[in-house]
Amino acid sequence: MKVIGSKRKSKMGEIDYGIFYTVALLLTIGVVMVYSASSYYAMFMYKDSMFFLKKELMAGVVGVIAMAVAMSVDYHKIKKYTAIIMIATIPILLAVFLFPGTNGAQRWINLGPLSFQPSELAKYVVVLFLARSLEVKGEGVKDFKTGIVPYLATSGFYAAIVLAEKNLSIASVIMIVTFLVLFAAGGRIKHLFGIVAPALVAAAVAFTVLEPYRMKRLMSFTNPWKDPIGDGYQLIQSFYALGAGGVTGLGLGQSRQKTLYMPEPHNDFIFSIIGEELGLIGCICIILLFVIFVWRGISVAMKARDTYGTLLAIGITGVVAVQSLINIAVVTGSMPVTGVPLPFISYGGTSLVINMTAIGILLNISRQTEGKDEFKEI
């Protein structure tokens, strides 16, 4: 036997097909369910049952292309552009205030038929910043003042802008993922769980107390029937959908709640329609796909060649995991109602394209894990 290429590394290895096929399945299910959930609403509002399907398919194609590009470009190249991306994201986040709000929230930049939601970008920009900076910080993360506070302040800055847009859900995702990445980077448990976690909870409570209407809305999940035509309406309709579906579901396309009972059923509460049409079995399959994704994402993080890759993989996996967990918990009445989409499944072009781009980066990390660039022996 002899060694070939001992002076030259081989090309990047294969992607993690567990992640690839899992995301492909979730995306496929998402496109099908967006059409099923939105067809009646789209016909009523736009006289075209395929209105939302066409937009989702377009976003899906752009997302797949973005994933393919990100998958092919060495993720280390993102480092030198991180500061530029962070700075550019701030005016983009603030630009939403120049456009009319929707349902009391200002989250979108509307340019004719196209719209963009900057908060979807912000959550991954924070991940890029954390991965790059914490790699340099090293063991310094164990110091609370210089290793924890600066990162919480930076993430909090972006979360505050998102919160000003009336988007509590994405702001929460940003802070939770920051917490997860700091923990993975070596942050001390006594700092994170003894100081940071209680402080975040206290801040959240104080915020809701200062704005009573928000507290009322958040706590409506404990008894939605107390206000069945107000704050509790959407959750009650979700319960009806999940209950009607039973174990096997009513059948694809057979949902009754989507016929103008559930407000915009193709968005944040699409999991309810999945439960109604595909039943408990369909819901379990969706949950298992997300579990597989998280498992493979953690595996990629653990095998990454450097700290930057590890933290980047954890951050990307964390965003998807936290969002899916919050969405399913909200739909099932396990936590306060917040408007967070189900990754790859809920309707939303910005969310889909940016999530797919992030998956491309994660797949690129998987191509450079330990053992992928070893010398060949024959």
TrEMBL record:
Its main location: membrane. It catalyses: [GlcNAc-(1->4)-Mur2Ac(oyl-L-Ala-gamma-D-Glu-L-Lys-D-Ala-D-Ala)](n)-di-trans,octa-cis-undecaprenyl diphosphate + beta-D-GlcNAc-(1->4)-Mur2Ac(oyl-L-Ala-gamma-D-Glu-L-Lys-D-Ala-D-Ala)-di-trans,octa-cis-undecaprenyl diphosphate = [GlcNAc-(1->4)-Mur2Ac(oyl-L-Ala-gamma-D-Glu-L-Lys-D-Ala-D-Ala)](n+1)-di-trans,octa-cis-undecaprenyl diphosphate + di-trans,octa-cis-undecaprenyl diphosphate + H(+). It holds the Pfam family FTSW_RODA_SPOVE. It is an enzyme of class 2 (transferase). GO terms for molecular function: lipid-linked peptidoglycan transporter activity; peptidoglycan glycosyltransferase activity. Its EC number is 2.4.99.28. Pathway: Cell wall biogenesis; peptidoglycan biosynthesis. GO terms for biological process: cell division; cell wall organization; peptidoglycan biosynthetic process; regulation of cell shape. It is a multi-pass membrane protein. GO terms for cellular component: cell division site; plasma membrane. The keyword Ribosomal protein does not apply. InterPro entries: FtsW, FtsW/RodA, SpoVE. Keywords: Cell cycle, Cell division, Cell membrane, Cell shape, Cell wall biogenesis/degradation, Glycosyltransferase, Membrane, Peptidoglycan synthesis, Transferase, Transmembrane, Transmembrane helix. It is found in: Cell membrane. The keyword Cell wall biogenesis/degradation applies. PANTHER family: CELL CYCLE PROTEIN, PEPTIDOGLYCAN GLYCOSYLTRANSFERASE FTSW-RELATED. Belongs to the SEDS family. FtsW subfamily. Peptidoglycan polymerase that is essential for cell division. This is Probable peptidoglycan glycosyltransferase FtsW.
